[in-house]
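Subject: for your reference before the review

Hello V.,

The reviewers asked for a structural picture of the protein, and I figured it would be easier to keep everything in one thread rather than splitting it across files. Below is the amino acid sequence we used in the manuscript, unchanged from the supplementary table.
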Amino acid sequence: MGKIRIFLTDDHTLFRQGVKTLIDSEPDMEIVGESSSATDAIAHAPEARPDVVLMDIGMQGLSSFEATRQIRKNRPETKVLFLTMYDDEDYLVECMEAGAAGYVLKDSPALELLNAIREIHRGGTYLSPRMLAQLVDDFRSRIKSTTRLPRFATLTPREKEVLKMLAEGNSVKEIACTLDLSVKTIEAHKFNLMRKLDIHNKAQLVQYAVQKKIIKIAIPA
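And here is what came back from the structure prediction:
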């Protein structure tokens, strides 16, 4: 039986080198390619014919979620395993909706990553134990809850601020500059608020902001 062919996508060179060293020490795995962006992964993964793509979240340029969709569309037999620092349920949901087979946190033990690769290569799915525990705790809290807050009430003050600025036509980069935050942070806030509000595009976001009187649209005289 051949080795598990792995394509590595991460924008940190030292991290990629560490993962490559780990993978190369395993007799049943091999690195067949790597990239530093989601765009490069789409361009080069098909020619490498990987069994598993290790994908980071939050790289510059095209989103990792869109890259996952395209990689899976172009080669459905390729499995995508997200390897990320974000222990965020909303990110986890987005990864799974994009077609990922697993989600492993970067501070996990090396053995956990190796087990995850083998599991999804066999056709299974894998979640880091910490993420699984969060999902269980969240499920339990929802069962115990007797009231359900309106969706807008679940947004944090910062998410409401980002919602208003997005609806007013500001780009993520412009919002990051105005609020003196990183682009990655604003992207995370944008993703969280759109998940909470079940909004999937800019037009729906603007419509929601108008309905809630977060912004006003001037009517020509």
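For the response letter, the relevant points are probably these. Residues 129-144 form the longest helix (16 residues). Residues 4-135 form a domain with the Rossmann fold fold (CATH 3.40.50.2300).

Happy to draft the paragraph if you're swamped.

O.
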